[in-house]
Amino acid sequence: MKKQQFIITVIGFLLVISLFFFAKTVPSVAAKKEVSSTAQNTGVQFSDILVAAKKKITIEQNDRLTALENAVTRGNVKEDKIHVYHQLARFWGDSAGMFIPYIYYTAEAAKLENSEKSLTFAAQQMVDRLLVVGDAGMQNWLASNAKALLDKAIEINPGNDSAKISLGACYIFGNISNSPMQGISPIREIVQKNPNNLYAHLILGLGGKKSGQYGKAVEHFLTILKTDTKNVDVMLNTAECYELMNNKTEAIKWYNAAKKLIDNAEIIKEIDKRINELK
Fold this sequence. Notes:
This protein is an all-alpha fold. It contains 15 helices and no strands. It has helices spanning 3-16, 29-35, 46-54, 59-74, 78-95, 99-113, 116-130, 136-156, 161-173, 181-193, 198-210, 214-227, 232-244, 248-259, 265-278. It starts with a helix and ends with a helix.
């Protein structure tokens, strides 16, 4: 297994294990009316995702879904629509186990609620998925939709540093701008103001890794590990950065440190294989 494939496999498993999976699919006429406002100017359209998702559910689930979609169309009161959107989110998340339809309807409810809490909740789930998904089109879809929510949240509370960091992540990893510095600069300002903001260090570290600035990435990751001493994901990223800098000793050290905290035989086997390849 190549090292890029290895790190994606291991970190992907650890980060996405609690999320859902999706595939491309075709919405009903009623659903099409509801999806046009979210995914725009990206290679991925929610209408396509919804079509494929519907092909994976049972006849009974499809009947339930149709009733909910019709309820959205009939709903004229904002509170009613919010309630139905939450029901749709629960259907896709709990019953169908598909993340993208779940987060789409969660986001639609958040837009209507227009509270800082609901907006940031939906946006953060999108950003968390953005950090592990490999498809460029899906990265752009997640980042574009998360940005729309975060812009609203920051408008409500301009002092929300976590929202600003997440917004920066959208620019860095979501291919929504030709200037990644548009996302990096605000995060650096937050770190200068609060050097202990671990979320800011994480995004800057991942951004440095993505851009090939492995030394800077390691600095941010080690800052996190001084406080969050058992963060397996950060340990694995640290190990990979050292490996990419050809510092095999430090790479092995952090792979071993991460391995001690993992309770999964398959992942431990892959880490041991990687360590042996480095020796």
